[in-house]
Amino acid sequence: MDPAPRDAFDHADPLRRLTLDELRLRTSMKWRTYPDDVLPLWVAEMDVPLAAPVVRAITEAVARGDTGYPSGTAYARALADFARARWDWAGLAVERTAIVPDVMLGVVEMLKLVTGPGDPVVVNCPVYPPFYQFVTHMDRRVVEAPLGEDLRIDFTVLEGAFRHATAGGGRAAYLLCSPHNPTGTVHSAEELAAVAALADRYCVRVVADEIHAPVVALDATFVPYLSVPGGERGLSLMSASKAWNLAGLKAALAVAGPAAADDLARLPEEVSHGPSHVGILAHTAALQDGGDWLDALRGGLDANRRLLADLLAERLPKVRYRPAEGTFLAWLDCRPLGLGDDPAAVFLDRGRVAFSSGPLFGTGGAGHLRLNLATSPELLTEAVRRMAVAVA
Q: N or C: which end of the chain has fewer CB within 10 A?
């Protein structure tokens, strides 16, 4: 019997395919960190079956014993084709790419290329907690440039951070999260061009984490940083990991703009030993043949964004939520509920529902939480019900 699901299912919303009982059979972090009475809507794993082309790629590789070391440029060529078709960007040159173990380890390697120990790295907070963890672990300094009240880049603040970071005359980098995690903001072409202009003015090197690039609303458009005027000196990290739920199949790509090719060429050869060969096969299949599945997911996420807005308006009207254009995450401002700096801890204790704690995302995170929208409408509805009961 063919273990792969029928491709026809790839046109159906994958968020509606799995039951809670099926999900609780999983052994990954999302489903094993908390007791069974806790509903987990926290870490960025999706409650979906894999796309059929990905399943085929993995099972066929295992069947033929193709589990050795990675080789070739198929992953990069698949990403280049995807970028051309989805983002109208023909500038992703395969010869200016390198495979890396995953996006965050790729970020570390890119920052090593353009900064030295003790150098500053600017981030737009609140932002993905590993930005702080990985940057400080590699002996760089984090300089915060908080987002504006509209959850978009505040260019006055960003320029001040660039000025501060380069005041001593040393090297500095800007770790751009695009689309932004946790807010889901999708930066516009104009905003990214303004980033490039500021970076050029202050001689700051831009490293863009674009892992959520494929996961935008059906009416939204992702713009690659390297595609905007002035982005030629940038370095980007991309992967199929988030969009196709492949976090356990390690593989990502570092991509250099034309003026950063020499930097990428200095990447140590041993870095390419980290990605999984089977992971690369899975990511390549997702980019090449997983488009129908991805679009069905995007439609389901659009529906979940609307559902969450309706549920909060009905059950928790004090919670501030702005449906975002990108990622499968929701950033909730719970300060009006008076639950303190870490409302996620309160909802876990009183409501038995797990979210990501806002304070971990840096300045601007207190009183907030991050909710993972990539689940079924039924589980999302139950999560909000538990939240409402917890503060009743």
A: N
Residue range 215-274, pLDDT digits in tens: 999 999 999 999 999 999 999 999 999 999 999 999 999 999 999 999 999 999 999 999
User: Of the candidates 261, 187, 265, which has an alpha carbon nearest to the alpha carbon of residue 225?
Assistant: 187
Q: Whole-structure pTM over 0.85, yes or no?
A: yes
Q: Taking 90 as the threshold, does the pLDDT of residue 50 lie above it?
A: yes
State how far the Cα of 240 lies from the Cα of 214, in Å rounded to an integer. Answer: 8
d(CA 316, CA 335): 12
- Cα separation of 354 and 357, whole Å? 9
Measured distance CA(138)–CA(182) in Å, rounded: 23
Show Cβ contacts of residue 305 under 8 Å, excluding neighbours closer than 6 positions: 217, 323, 324, 330, 373
Q: Are 76 and 96 in contact (CB under 8 A)?
A: no
pLDDT on residue 11: 82
